[in-house]
Amino acid sequence: MSGDPLGYRAKFGVVTPSVNTVVQPEYDAMRPYGVTNHIARIHIPEKPIDGDVGFQELVDAIDRGLDDAVQRVLCVEPTCVVMGVSIEAVYRGGVGAARVIERRLNTRFGELTLIHAADALPAALRALGVDDGPVSLVTPYMPDADAHLKAFVEEIGYGYQQAIHLRAPTPLQISHTPEADVRAALTELAAGRPRAIIQFGANLSMARLADEAERWLGLPVIAVNTATYWHALRRHGIPDRREGFGSLLLRH
């Protein structure tokens, strides 16, 4: 418990790329009373993502700026640090890469709790009763990211059925992806009847759309921001249910 008058249950230190306009409002919309979110920005350039090389440069830029952002947000003495970015650990090698990041941050800053997609997504699948079988993905990335995402899905113990990549040309433009394009992708993926659909890309607004999509598609739709924030809440014993963000935030 924190002595902070607003964050008396938990203070979440959130690090997210400088061009991300979605993480902060979506996390705030899911925030229960007594929990506060405190944002630090990871500076990255706004430049075209040109194939696998360009995507690797983006991931490298996030990694270079991560430690400084964590250092800034630690000034508020947060309960934990939440990675409001879904691709870094996954693209670099999944759960193993996430552990490397954790060790690096712990070595530099002392013991801290790091919440990230590499842990949150498998926990979310299990919470929704998806213990095996194929899953499909919708992402804002270029198709070059496919092999990395497939490796992550298989590492956490699931089959990789299909992915639709919506090809946002720059990191900022991810947030400008038309909702109609996301809806069309979800509908196409659902036709293959995967056990679940996972959305990657923390700058792609999906928290509320996932709630609607679950009703019309009849299967779990996991938005990465929802999964990450849910995981942060549950890791810290905060059981609050939140309507309007899909079935995950209704689960303990």
Automatic annotation (TrEMBL):
Pfam families referenced in this protein's UniProt entry, alphabetically: Amdase
Keywords assigned: Isomerase
Cross-referenced InterPro entries: Iso_Racemase_Enz_sf (IPR053714), MaiA/AMDase (IPR026286)
GO molecular function, one term: isomerase activity
UniProt signal peptide: none
Record keyword Cytoplasm present: no
Domain of life, per lineage: Bacteria
PANTHER family: BLR3294 PROTEIN (PTHR40267)
Protein name per UniProt: Maleate isomerase
Protein's organism: Parafrankia irregularis
